[in-house]
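Figure 2 data, in text form.
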Amino acid sequence: MEESGRIFLEFASLTAFWIMSLSLIFPLFRLFKGPTLPDRVVALDQIAFIIVGIIICDVFYTQNVMLLDVVLIVSLHLVFGSMIIARYLYKKQNEND
């Protein structure tokens, strides 16, 4: 029973990996084509979170638990980076008004 569970987990993680890889197309389009700076920031955030999901799929596929530390650190940087950029855009908008 344990072998079939491992095979299913490998199949599910590979499927999720390919779906997330394909889902990178739309935010990349928005990143390069986006009409405003906030659109590009949101697209960059979305790309980064998709990459974190891809790393998590790799953790399930390879069973390398060390990558979870990388996921944690990258996620923390993403959250703080998003807050800093949002604050910058808010201040920039208030200066223009």
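Caption note: The mean pLDDT is 90.
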